[in-house]
Amino acid sequence: MNNETLPPVDCAPWCRDGKGHRDAIKPVDQACMSEKHIIELTTEPMVSMSDGTTERQTVSVSLLRERGSRSTTLELSINDWPEVSLTTDEALGLRGILTDLFLTAVA
Ligand SMILES: [Zn+2]
Q1: Alpha carbon of 59 to ligand 1 centroid (Å)
Q2: What is each CA distance from 17 to 3, 68, 75, 88, 90, in whole angstroms?
Q3: What is the 51 CA–ligand 1 centroid distance (Å)?
Q4: For the segment 60-97, what is each residue's pLDDT rounded down to a tens digit?
Q5: How far, in Å, from the CA of 79 to the mean position of ligand 1?
Q6: d(C-alpha 30, C-alpha 61), whole Å
Q7: How far apart are CA 52 and CA 74, in angstroms?
């Protein structure tokens, strides 16, 4: 068994770990992740859970920076399942489109 620990990485200011991921087993596990922002989807059908309860479907978004990378991506998940990774430029473009559509919808 390997008892060596990995050297800590410099965490992003928004990283949940914030301490360099010293308990990671593999270097690939030393990715910085932000808190997850979850939006419940009120117009989508409820989903049945294994315990018999039902839950709203969700979209969630968080930040990710892989170990050794200088760039951050926005990770979008549906029902906690990773679906798409956006660069910050792509996310900014999506933000503009969503804002424009929102303003059109409420006009
Ligand atoms: Zn980190």
Answers
A1: 23
A2: 21, 16, 17, 21, 26
A3: 34
A4: 999 999 998 989 999 999 999 999 999 999 999 999 99
A5: 24
A6: 19
A7: 32
What is the CA(87)–ligand 1 centre distance, in A? Answer: 18
Closest residue by Cα to residue 42 from 57, 60, 62, 24: 57
Separation of 24 CA from ligand 1 center, angstroms? 11
Fill in the amino acid letter for 44: E
Distance (angstroms) between ligand 1 centre and the Cα of 15 equals 5
Mean pLDDT, the chain, rounded, equals 94
Ligand 1 center–CA 46 separation, angstroms: 34
**pTM summary value:** 0.86
Structure tokens that stand for 12 in this block: 């992003």
